[in-house]
Amino acid sequence: MIMAPCIFCPPGRPRKLLHEDDKVIAFxxxxxxxLRHYLVIPVDHIPTVRDxxxxxxxxxxxEDMVKIGQSLLQRDAPGAVEYRWKKIxxxxxxxxxxxIEADDLLKKIKPIDNNS
Length: 116
Prior knowledge:
Strand order of the largest sheet: 1-2-3
Number of strands: 5
Helix content: 25-40%
Structural class: alpha+beta
Distance between the termini: 39 Å
């Protein structure tokens, strides 16, 4: 299956990144639905959330994405008493890749500990 070009890869990648590392980039949504509407996406292409498995690397990636989103909100709204997950509630991978609440996804892909 041939994937369509990614709108988040150069040259389409936003010029102003809020975060960048070897696994994740973050930037403001160009059509924000909220005052602070950030996209935190993996550098590696993941076609859909269904492609994430109960593997340590997938769990760690999603966990890092959530932490980065929380960190950006904390940095940009330090006086806020609470952060509603609705601001960073859903993770989406790829165009129309599927939406799922971050906490539900983490539960779904948490690696099974065979040593227990």
